[in-house]
Amino acid sequence: MKNIAVFISGTGSNAARMLKEFRSHSQITISLIISTKKNKEMTELCAANGVQYIYTGWSEKEQKEIYSILQKKKIDWIILAGFLKLIPEEYVSGYEHRMINLHPALLPKFGGKGMYGMNVHKAVISAGEKKSGITIHYVNSQYDEGRIIEQFSVDIDPSDDANSLFEKIRKLEVIHFVKAVEQEILKSD
User: Fold this and answer.
1) Which residues pair with 30 in a beta bridge?
2) What CATH architecture is 2-186?
3) How far apart are CA 89 and CA 82, in angstroms?
4) Does residue 85 contact residue 9 with C-beta atoms inside 8 Å?
5) 101 contacts 146 by C-beta, under 8 angstroms
6) Residues facing residue 6 across a β-bridge
7) In 36-161, at which residue ranges do the beta strands (DSSP E only) sit?
8) Helix, strand, coil percentages for the chain (3-state, nearest 5)
9) Are 165 and 148 contacting, i.e. CB atoms less than 8 angstroms apart?
10) Rounded to the nearest 5 degrees, what angle is found at the Cα of 28, between the Cα atoms of 89 and 53?
11) Fewer CB within 10 Å of terminal CB in the chain, N or C?
12) pLDDT tens digit string along 47-74?
């Protein structure tokens, strides 16, 4: 059984989908959600599913405490699902090739510090791109520069704005993210 932790900084919709999909999985279980935003809904969802929920300000001290918790809980994989903080080197080296991130653009374009959420979609529209999408990639010590696992794209119509592009990207996340994570974890055996 692969034991995973999911790190979030927003509403946790992708984490909620993972909880639902992996709840009765025979080979993958989620036992920990780490959030840098207080999240009542996720707290309740975790409680209902027997998953530990930890809110953190992500200070250096808290990062060390959480890393210790990851070790104690024997976490095999870390999944970043809208996590907006830079991952410390200790995590990167300790979970090399076992930490996956979702980015709402087609990397290497529109990645890096500050490139998240609507910032990405506004930049893509401003640049006049014809396509955008999601990138599922491994995490290294730089924002959005880890090895790409998979990318999925959508066409950008002339009528699209950042909000309509956000909706298209969201649909890709719903369709592909959990499945791609599952496939990557299962092929690691």
Assistant:
1) 4
2) 3-Layer(aba) Sandwich (3.40)
3) 19
4) yes
5) yes
6) 33, 79
7) 52-55, 77-80, 99-103, 131-138, 148-155
8) 40, 25, 40
9) no
10) 60
11) C
12) 999 999 999 999 999 999 999 999 999 9
Return the structure tokens found at 87: 């991952």
Catalytic sites, residue numbers? 103
pLDDT tens digits for 72-89? 999 999 999 999 898 999
Q: Are 143 and 158 in contact (CB under 8 A)?
A: no
Cβ proximity of 49 and 19 under 8 Å:
yes
CA distance 36 to 54: 9
Of 2, 6, 54, 17, residue with least CA distance to 176: 17
The crossing angle, in degrees rounded to 10, of helices 40-49 and 13-22 is 10
Q: Which two tokens stand for residue 65?
A: 């405490």
Radius of gyration of the chain (CA): 16
Q: Where are the domains of the chain?
A: 2-186
d(CA 68, CA 83): 19
pLDDT in tens, 108-127: 999 998 999 999 999 999 99
pLDDT per residue as tens digits for the range 22-38: 999 999 999 999 999 99
User: Under the phi-then-psi rule, with left for phi > 0, alpha for psi from -120 to 50, and beta for the rest, what region is 6?
Assistant: beta
Model confidence at 189: pLDDT above 80: no
Instruction: Please give the model's pTM, rounded to 2 decimal places.
Output: 0.95
Q: Tokens representing 21?
A: 């999909």
